[in-house]
Every structure is written in structure tokens, then in C-alpha cells.
Amino acid sequence: VANNTLIRALWVVLNPFDVVYVVKDAGYIYIKDESGVNLIYDYNLDDKLKAGDHVEGFVGVSSPYNNLPELKASVSYNELTVTPGVAPEPTVMAAAPTKADANKYIKFENVTLTANTTFSTGSATNATMVVNGKNVTLRNNFKLAATLSKDKAYNIVGFAAIYNSTIQIYFLSATEYVAPEPCTLATPVNWDEKIALEANSDKWYLMD
Predict the structure, then answer these.
(1) How far apart are alpha carbons 114 and 126 in whole angstroms?
(2) Residue 111 backbone dihedrals phi, psi, to 5 degrees
(3) Exposure of 83 by Cβ count < 10 A (0-12 exposed, 13-18 middle, 19+ buried)?
(4) With 0-12 CB in 10 A as exposed, 13-18 as middle and 19+ as buried, what is 162?
(5) 22-58 pLDDT, tens digit each
């Protein structure tokens, strides 16, 4: 039995895995086990499994879609052993994604868009974001509403996907990037000067 080997029409029994993220009513269930990340596409499980769930007993069929690794379940929820857990946070990535990042839950910080963008719940449209100097397609695959300005920087969260042979990011959320406050160093104390000025006072200083 192959584990996480993605060959079309191959029956797959997965190791116990953790649910990374579920796009409810869209059939997307992102998972992670000891061998890496994967995607289960199943409308019968997406309303039951939750991020952080630890799952055992999954059996399915490998069914890549547009070169994106994907599995289809051959078991029902009641046949699984599910233990609730803590939902994971996305991995912060500074570089532009590659095909090796497919199905990873990623956060990009301080990125910009090449044009003003309005995502709507009515259609799956694309935008272009700039990650470390490289253009990356940002796709509103899950039809989420968002308005993004090309004049602002954002922290963008999504999943890496492959469409045909092109890497893209399935948009989940965006928050405006806030630059960290600069660190201000305290002015060092000139002890010789301080002691000289206060030599006639009642102040005493313990010196190392």
C-alpha cells in the first residue's frame, strides 16, 4: 500500500494525519502527516472535519487535478477516528513559492499587488502580488470578498496550488501590513561625568 504516493487511480491509505485547514462548502481539506502535506477533496467530510483534528483510518484514491496533488475519500466520517486538536498557524514564507510548496499553508508578509483588486463572492478571479521581487498569481479560488489597494502592503495568507504548470496562491485572507516600531537604544550613562556632577550630593552608586 502506498503512502501519499500520488498516481492516478491508486488506492491510498494515509498515515494518521492532522487537519491543517478546511474550506467549508468547497470540499477542500488540507492535511499534514509525517511525509508532508496533501489535499483531500471531499464534500462529505468538509463540514465535519476541523482544523487541528487528528485523523486515523483514512482510505482514498489518488486523483491529481491540473497537476495539483489531490485525494478523494473512500470512507465516511463515521469510519474515521478523529481526535480534536489545536489549529495550526500558517508558515511565514519570505521567498516566492515553488511547485514543491503545493498544498502548503503559507503567510506572506509585507507584499504588494500590481493593481487595485476587488475579490467577490460571485467569481474566482486572479490578481498579481509581488513576493520578494517576483510576481505571483493570487487566485480567489474560494470566492472570498476582499478589496486590496496597490498602494498598500499586506500580510496575505493562502495555500500554494498548481494550475497546469504554474504555481499560484489560493487566497484566504489579507491584513494591512504594519511596519514594526524602530528600536530606540537608551543613551549610555557616562558614569565618570555623573559621579563628578553629584559628588557633593547624598547619592551613592554601586559599580560592578
Answers:
(1) 11
(2) -110, 155
(3) exposed
(4) buried
(5) 998 899 999 998 888 999 999 999 999 999 999 999 9
